[in-house]
Amino acid sequence: MSRYRITNDDLKHAAEFRADPLGIPGPGLQRVLNLLRGGPKSGKYVLVVKEPFKRWGLGRLPADRGQPVEIIDSLEFTSLFEAEWEVFKLRWKTHTGQDLEQAL
Amino acid sequence: MTRILGYADRISAAPGECIQVMVSCEGLEQFDANLIRVIQGDINPSGPGYREEAVALNLGGPFVGRYQPINSGSYAVIDDAPAFNTQSSLGLQALIWPTLPGRGSQVILSREDPELGAGFRLYLDSEGAAAFQITKKKGKSKRISTGKRLISERWYLISGSYDVENGTLTVVQKLLNPYPNVNVAFKVSRNVSTNMICTDIEAPIMIAARSANNQPAIDHFNGRIEAPKIFSRSLRTEEMESLVGTECEDLVAAWDFSVGMSTEQITDKSGNQLHGYLVNLPTRGVCGHKWDGSEHCWHKKPEHYAAIHFHDDDLYDCAWKSDFEVRLPDNISSGVYAIHLQSGSEEYYIPFAVRPPHGTKTAPVAFILPTASYMAYANNRIGIDVPETEIVTGRLIQMNPIDLFMQTHPEIGLCFYDLHNDGSGVFYSSRLRPIVNMQPKQIGHLGGAGSNLWQFNADTHILDWLEQLDQPFDVIADEDIETEGSEVLEGYRAVITGTHPEYYSARMLDSLQAYMDGGGRLMYLGGNGFYWRVSYHPTLPGVIECRKSEDGIRAFAPLPGEFYSSFTGEYTGLWRRNGRPPNELVGIGMVSQGFDYSSPYVMREASRDPRAAFVFEGVEEPVIGDYGLAGGGAAGLELDATNHALGTPPHTLVLASSERHSDLYLMTPEDMNDPAPGLGGTEAEIIRAEMVFFETPSGGAVFSTGSIAWSGSLSHANYNNDIARITTNVLKRFLDETPFASTTEH
């Protein structure tokens, strides 16, 4: 579990991520990603494959085995870049309260 | 939705042999079944294209679909208990080390007729307190509880007693190693009736569960039980508060779990022959209440290992009824095949090896289907249970239909990458259950950006490469080597591994070494091979044990004192810690893993050595494999490199190596004695895949790639690329009978 806390200094790393959500991150962005991609299992965002390699929905992992993955019906992606950026924004907001599209 | 599942009784069969196929359907009235040859299992549209080949064999369908349940959870059964059929008082006792007190009712020792409801049970109630219940008939139960929840993972003495003379029901729970100034012993009695014993119970005695009407057992215990006993009288106060020996009068049964450790039998030492058997392989060879660190090997001091660890999610054999039998045609070619089950849009594959007929070879080269490693990863929950998976893969976790199924159906069983519900590690993995991630078309979690394949499906990249070469090959499963030894490999000019042959038994390793000592040629087309030592069960089919002792990359560490295999008594862990590092066999050994992107290799000076000239025929560029379906490069996922201190032969040629990986690649713990900054792939020099070649005695040779990702690059540009070229060059030379030079200046 990361103890790192995001500040406005990290906006440049958010911009780096937006430019290439599936690129190899620099050390600063990696530190942000370790926080955003970390955390407990319960409620963790995951992609739910609707059509392999083509179409994905968004879901959240449940706390316990046996419980179904929560499907978030309102979102569907046809690009992994788009999905990564969307989840990055959701998590950024959770950690900072900040709307990233506006902040950048 | 996964509504059709199946498994077979064997994972390798020869032409003419029969395979039993067990199927379960949920809401499907019928299904069809066909035999197919697996050629390319990757469904990535950017890949070479999925390919299977139908085998003209009528399997007899369509078949009626039926639901067959999976009853997970381990327990012991003593079927016949004539010595215990007396109208008398009753005493029960056991030592327990609970792991989930408070998670529902959990039975320690019981005998209950589910029809009549009559019987008794000593158990932990839903509050996690010791309780004792006696039932004359349905609706007429008397129970008593201490009302004090037990502390998890501490040894307790639990006693229950019913005195038929005065109608007293008593239960005791006592912590064996108490904390200072803490009350840890509780005894509760109550007056019930003098007529609660029922004599005509026909149900078995059960340990760690109780009988039920519609399933084999319910109320499974989580934790360890040691020395359970039954007396045909009530226990005196002093007896209830101390462990009673086996010389005590009126002893009906006293099970000693230190006996028959490698079996599924339990032994009664009372003299009444109330022996029993275990169901679903609870864990043996674990420390009991006497363990004090004076001995770490169970067979040297079995009395310290007189406990069995039961889990409510243990699973050995689903024990489904067979739906049909497949008799393999006498003329079927060796290869990887699968039974394809289909009902509407639902489908399921049950893969297996068709090996050559016993005692024969039908091709000059054998592909070793790494079935031990498939079992090690069977139904792994890496993407579901391990939230760090997203960090180590550098991308969002993708939940495929099989992941969604495993999440809602945990009864399908666990593997070496999982924890039991009680947080203890999984030591046993079986193939007598559906293995949903061992199918063509399936996508994994650790296979890198691109196709993201792992184990079975990743290995189909090698099968497809052999097919497109029109290279005849035999397939030999790990289990064939375990069963038959080196004879099954003798005579092949070359042997090819899978992408990740990580789990090897001693016999498998001995056999491969014997093949090499006899002049064999080995193409190790993977990474992190020959890493963990596993044991096959001496009598039970289809199950292996792995305890990841000492260190290594692992999901959990076994507890101290539990580093010896219960199946065989072998010391477990890394082969490197067992005096046989993979470097001795294949020149290289595991150094790092990372699951985002793979890298190319760069040719090294040794690539110009005349000894290796055949490897690079037609290869012109020094950078090799900057493409591929497993992370975009040929060097990735798990990486091996040379280490002369670990036995890399001195004449090994490092032909090429990868130079730079992302910082999601980290060193292995076994190489990281004193952590310091700079252990990631952008900085640590040790993090590299090395492609090596060396000659062996008797004219043999080894070619190793040191990368799981290698095979993902084979099909690039329709197999017209340097990775495929190098692999083919090596195969051609290895199939040439001309001996390799067996001596060098070293």
Describe this structure in words.
The complex is a heterodimer of chains A (104) and B (746). Chain A is 38% helix and 20% strand. In chain A, strand 1 and strand 2 (55-60) form a beta hairpin. Chain A contains four helices and three strands, in the order H-H-E-E-E-H-H. With 104 residues, chain A is α+β, with helices and mostly antiparallel strands. With 746 residues, chain B is mainly beta. In chain B, the strands form six sheets. Chain B has a 16-stranded antiparallel β-sheet that branches. In chain B, a hairpin with a 7-residue loop joins strand 19 (265-268) and strand 20. The interface between A and B is medium-sized, with 34 and 33 residues.
Helix content of chain A: 25-40%
Number of helices of chain B: 11
How would you characterize the largest beta sheet of chain A? 3 strands, antiparallel
Task: Work out the helicity level of chain B.
Answer: 10-25%
Biggest pleated sheet of chain B: 16 strands, antiparallel
End-to-end Cα distance of chain B, whole Å, is: 59 Å
Derived structural class of chain A: alpha+beta
Which architecture name of the largest domain in chain B does CATH use? 3-Layer(aba) Sandwich
Most extensive chain interface and residues per partner: A-B, 34 and 33 residues
Nearest-integer average pLDDT of chain B: 95
Total strands of chain B: the figure is 43
Total discrete domains of chain B: 3
Form type of chain A? globular
Overall form of chain B: elongated
List unreliable stretches of 5+ residues of chain A: none
